[in-house]
Amino acid sequence: MLTPRAPKPELAGQQYAVVLVDEDQLNQLMHRPAMRQVNSRFASNDALVRYERLKRRTAAAAVVLLVLAAGGVAWVFVPQPAMASMFDWSKPAAIPTLYTGASFSVTLASLDSADGANDAAARVRALGMPAFTRRSPGKNQVYQAMVGPFASLDEAEKAQRRLGGMGYPGARLFVDESLRTAPRSERPVDTPHDLGVLLLGAPDRLSLVFELQSEPRQVTSARPDAATLQIDAGPMPAPAQPQQWSAPDGVHLLHTVSVDAVAAQGGLNYVRARVALPEFAKANVRTEGRRVYVDLTWPLEEEQDPRTPRRATVSAPQEEDSSVPARQHEPGSSGQKQNSPAQQERYREEILPIHQRINEIRPFILSAAQSGSTDVYAALDSTLANLEASLVAMSVPPSEAGQHQLLIAATRSARSGLEPGFSGDRLAHAQKALTMFDGAMAAPVISTAP
Predict the structure, then answer these.
(1) Which value, to the nearest 10 degrees, does the dihedral of the CA atoms of residues 439, 441, 445, 446 take?
(2) What pLDDT is attached to residue 223?
(3) Rounded to whole angstroms, how far apart are CA atoms 294 and 299?
């Protein structure tokens, strides 16, 4: 017999669900305004709440300290250029490259004798003209006395006419375009309208040209230190605008050029130019109207004082042309002997492997300067000592003596920076030696002439 199922009890009245909320949730449900805690320092919070808050603050402080510590480690161990590339604000502004152009010179004599070319240049230089000598490139090398360089064709033609009146009717123009297409930075150059700066390539030299607002009444030059040439020119009608330029790639006779205004006594405006250049570079300052020229040369053969008497001289200016035969020097004469083709060819064969070896060890010279290892210094010094011994033992043609002596000086300079007792900046010293190597191994300037 089945027992009937008892009916479910029914609860009279309404049923409610119980929801537990805290005070903050209740405020949100009731749309109450948030309460601003006053004098939280003395609020009697629950101990658990205070513990949770302290734990959160401690964890945040630990994270901050960890980030700072990691950043410090990165700053110490990551190379500075790499770190700098991460922050745009830390990158230095690019310096614009100097404008370059063709130079104009005047060839007044082409001789087979270096001594005769020096005589001609000395006489013209004594008359106030910027004369120099150079050895022409090519197989049939001659020694040329030249005047210049100039930034404009008008200046060169004026010098040519003056030389014609002095007894040099065969003087001809010479154009050098070796720096006309030198690479420049892509950054636009904001060149001041009151000043023009131009870098010219010339035979065996460079010429830096400043074109001023007006012709200066006074130009002074000085070397505050071995690597800086300072030029003051004025007075000018208005102050010059500050500007800075860098040398094009491949130019080693100067690094940077800066221009600024200087107020002299009486409120006069002067232009001050500062040229950063290698310590061994020779600089000569001259003026041509509104232009101030700075001629830069390598320290090759020392020029003989024109006041020093010579045993052999050229009899007359009009005989100084390419048809003059080589002069014969007496035994013991101070004149320079002529190069023989066989001697030059033998020298080139011997010097070529020396140049190749120097190019091979160039990176190691910089690496050794930064290593701080005496073993590395000793190993590289042994290589340089062998190169120096080979250079000293070579038979050098007279026409190559200047470049050869500079090569020996560069080798000795590199060795001196590797000595254990060296107390200067090894890296800067190594860079200087490499610049000297560049000058010693530079090929002759091949220029175009009409």
Answers:
(1) -170
(2) 92
(3) 15
Q: Is 394 left (phi over 0), alpha (psi -120 to 50) or beta?
A: beta
- Burial code of 239-265, b = ≥16 C-beta within 10 A, e = fewer? ebeebebbbbeebbbbbebebebeeee
Q: Which tokens hold the place of 429?
A: 């010293």
CA 444 – CA 371 distance, rounded (Å): 35
**CA dist 81 → 63, 67, 69, 72, 365 (Å):** 28, 21, 20, 16, 21
Q: How far apart are CA 336 and CA 308, in angstroms?
A: 16
Task: Identify which of 152, 278, 304, 179 has the alpha carbon closest to the alpha carbon of residue 226.
Answer: 278
Place of tokens 């980030």: 67
pTM: 0.52
What is the predicted pLDDT for the residue at 300? 58
State the pairing for strand pair 205-211/243-246.
unpaired
- Cα separation, 343 vs 397, in Å, equals 7
Query: What are the structure tokens assigned to 221, written together?
Result: 């030059």
Dist CA 383 CA 357 (whole Å): 9
Quote the tokens at residue 247.
């040398």
Among the residues of 21-137, which ranges form H helices?
A: 23-30, 47-77, 80-86, 114-126
Residues of the chain below pLDDT 50: 36-45, 73-92, 189, 301-337, 444-450
For residue 5, the SS3 value is coil
pLDDT of residue 187: 53
Q: Give the burial class of 336: count Cβ atoms within 10 A of its Cβ; 0-12 exposed, 13-18 middle, 19 or more buried.
A: middle
Q: Counting every residue, how long is the chain?
A: 450
Element (H, E) at 146: strand 143-150
User: Can you tell me the distance from the alpha carbon of 126 to that of 131, in angstroms, rounded to the nearest whole number?
Assistant: 9
State pLDDT tens for residues 149-184.
999 999 999 999 999 888 888 899 999 998 887 777
